[in-house]
Amino acid sequence: MLGITSFFFNLLRKILFLWVRTDVIGNDAKQLGLDPEKPVVYVLQHSSLSSRLVLEQECRLAGLPSSQAPLTLRDAVLSRSHFFLYEKRGQMFRRRHTPTITERLKQLVSAAQKDPGLDVQIVPVSLFWGRTPEKERSLFKLMLADTWSIAGRLRQFLTIVIHGRNTFIQFSKPISLRYIVDDTQDPQRANRKLARLLRVHFRRMRQAVVGPDLSHRRTLVSTLIRSPSVKDAIRETAKKENISPHKAKERARKYADEIASNVSIAAVRFLDIILTWVWNKIYNGVTINNIDAVKEAAKSSAVVYVPCHRSHIDYLLLSYVLYRNGLMVPHIAAGINLNMPVVGPILRRGGAFFMRRSFKNNKLYTAVFNEYMHSMFTRGHPVEYFVEGGRSRTGRTLQPKAGMLMMTVRSYLRNYKKPITFVPVYIGYEKILEARSYLGELRGKKKKDENIFGLFKSLRNLRNSFGRVSVNFGEPFALSDVLDKVQPHWRDQAYDQEPRPKWMPHMIDELAEMVATRINNAAALNPINIVATLLLATPKQAMDQKMLADHCDAVVSLLRMHPYSNEMSFPEGCGADWVKYTESMGLALRQHQKLGDIISLEGSSAILLTYYRNNILHFLALPALVASLFQNNSTMDRTKLVWLVSSIYPYIKSELFLRWHKDDVDPEIERWIETLCESNLLLKDKDNLYRPMAGSREFVLLNALAKTIIPTLERYYIAIAILRRHGKGAITANALEEQSTSMAERMSILYGLNAPEFFDKALFRNFINNLKSNEIIQVDEEGHIIYDEDLDNIAEDARLVLNAELRQSILQVAIETQPTQAPAA
């Protein structure tokens, strides 16, 4: 009889998979951590023949223990190696799936209690016929959606027909039955504990994969308009502008309709198909790192994804990666400029909600947007926004904007029952899609507005290859942890609809720095940014091929010996492979020469490669600072070296979002000194450190390291030179920023510095603000900068890094430039 049953079961399985197509995650014994010496039992949430057929098929394909095989326990034999958490209960035609402690579960617990040596690995398996939320506009879709509460065989058949080709299965890590049983001697309590643990697991999996229930969009818009904060803003707007409350209410409704996303799983599936084709056309693959930490966070928190912003592709790529890895696509904050005809509605259905660039002087819009964000967080929807505001044109992580972070914190203070977890994301491209337009903008061309014609024009890029993409997820962190650090007693305070406690600005600064720092922690080394870093460190942007390959290997070896963080990623291959790859991508030229081929940069390539070098500049900042102090010094006292690097560190940290606090950086500097000594890039004798012999391989490599950070130090010296040239109390911070930018641009032209960020006004502004925060300069009542001998000491220390010729050139340009500037008042 068993043979006949088995025959028909396998026949049905083969028939079912003529139609069904699955996307499976976790079906790897090593990944699951299965012990081959211990029995395995699978648990499904709902009892159905189709679920059993799919489970057995995936077990066979993955080489996992069969779910249909009998399981022998101490004094009992289970007919199958699986059980269901929910069983159908009730009268005929009214049977419903109900959480039940099944006989098979009881048998497992009983056997484990009788045999102390028995441990069964219970593997939860989540199965989704499609990934449709419970509430949809379409009655037909609602009827066929997988709600995990299938009423009958007809509906199950229709669900498989409609959704079967988009079936998602997730195998989760096993639960030890021994652990459950050893925790209590009462069999009934052990049964309840195991059942409760499994129910919580399946509920969290559903939250992570499908997301919270979606309300009808019109209902959501109406709910926003009825909220107390929006009602207050409507009344205030009507009074201020002398219009009727009805008109103000309709304006608020229009704002809400403009903002709100309209997530459609059908649209998400459509985009998944299209984007799979696009990525295969333009990329050589997408590498994903540390996704498991995100899956854990998504089970119990409202997740806020905070990626770096380098390209418009970021929006689509992150959603694609999440969806492909069994996570719900986030609701994405997009600029209103992307709400174009055709494109806007597609993005909105893919999860985008649109926001204006400025909320200034529009309290009604601000209230509606804040309430929309609050509804997203309290309902547990994943949200994504870019803290940098706009795309980085230089490849660096930009200074974070406070707006979206402020809204997130205020929403959480209003209702902190639902945890919020931030997930920093680094998206690294080997070749940026918008590279040429960025080059134009850096040369002064006006930024073009997005439009539908520009989109079609960009389709030409589908003919080109843009290398690999890395999507690295940083270490998630809870918003409550940051609040606890900044304001330990924040839960003891009462907050209104728009909380603005005095400690909020400091809290936002801490949060912004943590987000940017953890994005950088997860950066990816790739062949392009490694080669770019070394070629740009040479005077003529050219190097012997073998030497370049050797230096690439040496730099990566340094970072493997002393990794910047646990979240960073490394490329495969070796230096010779990376040089060839960069050449094949059209980013470097090879010149054949009798004594050996030369790799060089020409024209705009040198400027373009600064973008890729800047992606990883923070990885090398500390060793480069150490190396820079041996540019003009053959030997240095170790204690003085550490002191000098730690003195410069706060300014570099603020600019590159380095991970160590300024008070804790000395041990890290010491570790880097040891790493450089182990690699023979520095030599040591007791308390003295020496640079290698001039002309040696190590000497050249140490110089290359130093060259990566020296342009930054030159920029600092420019600002200090101008300030000292004017004298105490003679120039304002704004005037110093303007003059420093102009002088840096002039220096760039005169001395051929191919780094566009060298004269980036924002970087000078940040440096001046850091001089203030470190109390090197002060601003008097009239806005003029005053300083003491500390600034003179910094200028004096510059001679240890910058050579005399360069310092003299900067001072000379400062003298020449000053008369053309309007006097500071």
UniProtKB/TrEMBL annotation:
Single annotated GO MF: glycerol-3-phosphate O-acyltransferase activity
Cellular-component GO terms for this entry: plasma membrane
Establish whether keyword Membrane is in the entry: yes
Pathway(s) served: Phospholipid metabolism; CDP-diacylglycerol biosynthesis; CDP-diacylglycerol from sn-glycerol 3-phosphate: step 1/3; Lipid metabolism
Question: Cross-referenced InterPro entries, in alphabetical order?
Answer: GPAT/DHAPAT, GPAT/DHAPAT_C, GPAT/DHAPAT_LPLAT, GPAT_PlsB, Plipid/glycerol_acylTrfase
Q: Which GO terms describe its biological process?
A: CDP-diacylglycerol biosynthetic process; fatty acid metabolic process
**What general EC class does the enzyme of this chain belong to?**
transferase
Which PANTHER family does this one have?
DIHYDROXYACETONE PHOSPHATE ACYLTRANSFERASE, GLYCEROL-3-PHOSPHATE ACYLTRANSFERASE
The record ties this protein, via HAMAP family, to: Glyc3P_acyltrans
Q: What is this protein called?
A: Glycerol-3-phosphate acyltransferase
